[in-house]
Amino acid sequence: MGEVKRWARAGGLAALVLLLAGCSFAPGPSLFGQPRTPHPTYKVGLPYTIKGVTYYPQVDYAYDRTGVASWYGEPFQGQYTANGELFDLNGMTAAHTTLPLPSIVEVVNLQNNRALHIRVNDRGPFVDGRLIDLSRRAAQLLGFERSGTAMVRVRVLREESLRAAAYAQRGVVDNGEAAVAVAAAPPAPKGQSSYQPPPAPVRQAAYQPPVEPPASPPQRHFYVQDPVYHVQAGPVATEDEADRLRARLIANGYRDARIVID
Q1: Which of 13, 41, 137, 148 has minimal CB crowding within 10 Å?
Q2: pTM
Q3: Total of domains in the chain
C-alpha cells in the first residue's frame, strides 16, 4: 500500500479511503454512529513529508513570521485534529506545520490590523506559500473569510503556550488564553509602518484552575481477521479539499490514505 491512485468520473465527489493494515486496531466511535470523544494531548512530533516537502516540528517560543493565512471549515468539522481535539469551525483554532500542539499564537491581519489570540491544535496548511490555516470563525473575525487568504503576522505567545501545553499534558483543553482581540487600528501616518500592536483583548475568559481529568476508560480494541480495514473519510466536494484532508491524515500517521473519485 502507500501508492495514491485517482479514478476520475465527470461530476464526481472525492472520497478519502484509509487502508489500515494489521491484526488489531481501535477505530473511532464515529464508525458506529456515536459522537467522537476528544483526547487532547501535547505533541511536537517527528519530521514528516507531505507532497515532497519535509517539515521539522520544533519548540520555538521566539517564532515570529509574516506570510499568507488561509482557512478551513465544513469538510473537517468534528474530525480529530493532530493533537486529538475535535475540529470546530466556529472555534478559535488553527493549523500550523511545525509549531508544538497546542501553542497559542497572535495572528494579525496586516491589511486591517485586526488581531486574534488563537490556539494551534492541528497540522497544515500543506499548500506552497501558506503560513497558517485558521478556522472559519477566526477568518471571519480577522476579515478575510470571503477573500480566502490574507497576509498576516504570526507570533508565538510564550507564557500562554506554556500554560496550554501544561493543560494538554493533563488531557485538558485550555481555552482561557485564547482571548479575542479584534479591532481595526487607525491608518498610520505617511512614512510609518501600518502595523500596530493589537489592543488589549475586548473579551477575556476568566481563569479557571486545572480540571482533574477523569480516569481513562479501558481501551477497546476490535480484532479482525481481514488484514486490511477500509475507513472512508468524506465525501468532500473538490479534489483540493480531498488533497488537504489526505495530507492531514498522513501527518497524523495514516500514510496509506488514498483518494478515490467516484
Answers
A1: 148
A2: 0.60
A3: 2
